[in-house]
Design brief:
The protein has 196 residues and is mainly α. The protein is built from nine helices and no strands. The N and C termini lie far apart (41 Å).
Amino acid sequence: MKHLTLLLALSFFVHAGLQAQSALSSLRNNPPTSSSSAKPKHTNKKKGLGGHHRPDAVENTRVGEAFAAYESGDENTAKNIFDQLDGQDPDAAFGLGLTYYEDGQIDQAVEALNQAIQLDGAHTDALYLLGLIYAENGNYPASADYLLRLLDIDESDADAWYLLGFLFYHSGDAEDAAVCLEQARQYDDYYNGEVY
């Protein structure tokens, strides 16, 4: 019985992984191309930006201090530390991009976030925030590009799936939007009640 349960669980995970890979491949060949006036609302999502404020593992203690300062509301101290380290630490570059984004300085945010990706091509938080910024500014193709890059690295990122589905839905492609929403729900129960 133990072996049967293990086999069923393994089968489920393999199937889920193949489903996600198939969806990614299909979506990559047919990304959203038209924009609408709809803008994603990141503040009402579980992660939105909330989970993307601090990367999961910040190795540099100085950068960790900057995130702590940022989270306590001392944005000037955080920005100064991030600015000192952004050319050498991807998390510092991400933090700088995040503070610029929160201040409404979008061009500077994009520049800093791209610096984070240059330093670490697998910086999923930077990829997500760039996807969000481009979505909020109506550039759905650029947003989809960053989200698909993120999903190539971590196909289980439910927030990226949800935002990608939002793009498809508001581009008039309900079928691909449904695929994305199903993936988001598969990876995070939070999205079970969500629609676009």
